Amino acid sequence: MGEWVIDAENITKVYRMGEVLVNALAGVTVKIHPGEVVSIMGPSGSGKSTLMNILGCLDRPTSGEYILDGAVVSNLRDDQLALIRNRKVGFVFQSFNLLPRASAISNVELPLRYAGINKDRNEKARLALESVGLGDRIKHHPAELSGGQQQRVAIARALINDPAILMADEPTGNLDSKSGKEILELILKLNKERGTTVIIVTHDPLIAARTSRVIRLRDGLVEEA
Amino acid sequence: MDLWQSVIEALQSLTANKMRSGLTILGIVIGVAAVIAMLAAGQGAQDTITGSISGIGTNLLFVFSGNMGETVRNVQPLTLGDAEAIADPFQAPSIVAVAPAIQGSVEVTYGGEQTSTSVVGVTPDYAAVRNYHMTEGEFISADQMLGNSSVVLLGVDVADKLFGRRDGLVGEVIRIEGQPFRVQGVLESKGGSSFGSQDNQVLVPLSTAQTRLVRRTVRDRVDLILAQVIGPDDISRASDEIAQILRTRHRTAIGADDFTIFSQQDFVSTAKTITGVLTIFLGGIAAISLLVGGIGIMNIMLVSVTERTREIGLRKALGARKRDIMIQFLTESSMLSMLGGLVGILLGWLIAQIVGQIAAANATPFTPVVGINDVLLATLFSTAVGLFFGIYPANRAANLEPVEALRYE
């Protein structure tokens, strides 16, 4: 592993909206050290979602080179990207995105299944749920859990494959302030314990204030601090 | 992704929409049941027909007048003389017994009872060749044949109609076309056959039929000659021998036989061809409903893919490859069709049994047969339908862009 866990150089992303070409990202360079907690901020349309998608390997840049955890990922095929997402990226979404018909532990097991890991799957998922404080809720379904608890399940799921980066998109956006605060504390605690790099996309300056560095986007470019 | 987990997950998602899954499965159930029932009925019909052909006797050749393949002029009818020539062991060594027959429709009366039936003029060998047995009385003897005797053997249906019973009839006198005939026996029931009931007939000596009941232009004429061959391996040789004899006797031109020789096997294979075509035809129609069921699966799977776009996006974010998503949806669609197939097989079997019961209630010996091949075919076919019609929706799911799918509301 090199100096950077994320080394994105001059990333652009151009969308075609009907006849019009939209420059969502116009040459963004982002470098993040392993173990950093970084927040990405910016108004709507600033390109922060696009940047998150590219950094999270959900999407490919139009141009520019992106090295994630030592591997060039900017020009991989779909299934190779799927593998990278599975092994190196953990996602936490604003709306939790748990499978409603699966129990907490089945939800947490899902990335292991896609990784083809069958051994000790159940045990690993149970430990992950314990580490987010839900050891007594493993059989519960999402509908039986509070919003904060659901987001904890999502965090357990994101970290189950021990990823290089945790990508959190407005992780507290659908939570009341108390459980939002708890979730943020949990993420920060896990960052300290495990050294996982954390990237939080947020509108909330209070959250951004808790991160070690803020990347501000405006009109597809990084605003120099 | 292990298969077992996929199956469980597929079942979970199918049970989440019980009504919808149930209706989709119903489409397949009806299709498979129809296919199974049709094939079973076809097989049953084939068995019945071939069985009744085999029941006529063993190793038989049937000789008719006329040529079915080509037009031949000056067709000479078959005569008793032809039958006697075929029976000659020096001319036709492969033939053990010959039974000429003449047939006509007659009115039979006894007291106030009256029925129309077919009369068959036969020789004493007819019993052995056709494998007839008597429940009482004696078969027609050579003396009766020579003496143009007015004796008759009754089929059980005729006995039922005229007397309302099947025994104690020997010695009674019935009238055939107004002429008195003494009943000298009752034939054992052969059951119905596809050529009309063999129980609804009366047998008289051939000579009597020729002179008094069935008028023909040629006095010596017979309608049919049955020849029994030594063994199953000698059938084609026997057929050649008969052809040789008849060509000589009828002085036919080369390649213009005025007679036709059918073996039992020819009848069986003809019947099999006919019932086979019928079965394929009916099965094909039934298969259309299976196809419609398959389209139902495709429809529901497309709805399901659209509904679960976000879920697909999430799975992709967590590392699901295209293959994983494909497998997930294909598992669901094949589960639908497999469940439908299993229930359909049961239902089809049930329908076949009911058809059999109805046939039995109507005294038609017809047993639908659900063959293991048909079951395998239906299972394979229905699963294949599920897979085939699942491919398009599954492919659509697998090719969703994760970013788009996650954003989908």
Describe the structure.
The complex is a heterodimer of chains A (225) and B (409). Chain A is built from seven helices and ten strands. Chain A is an alpha/beta fold and 225 residues long. Chain A has one domain (6-223): P-loop containing nucleotide triphosphate hydrolases (Rossmann fold). In chain A, the strands form two sheets. Chain A has a six-stranded mixed β-sheet with strand order 6-7-8-3-9-10, sandwiched between helices. A four-stranded antiparallel β-sheet of chain A has the order 2-1-4-5, with helices on one face. In chain A, helix 6 links the parallel strand 7 (165-169) and strand 8 (197-201). The radius of gyration of chain A is 17 Å and the shape is globular. Chain A starts with 5 loop residues before the first strand and ends with a strand. The mean pLDDT of chain A is 91. With 409 residues, chain B is an alpha+beta fold. Chain B has two domains: 3-53 and 269-407, no CATH class; 67-257, no CATH class. Chain B contains 13 helices and twelve strands. Chain B is elongated, with a radius of gyration of 32 Å. The model of chain B has no long low-confidence stretch (mean pLDDT 87). The interface between A and B is medium-sized, with 26 and 24 residues.
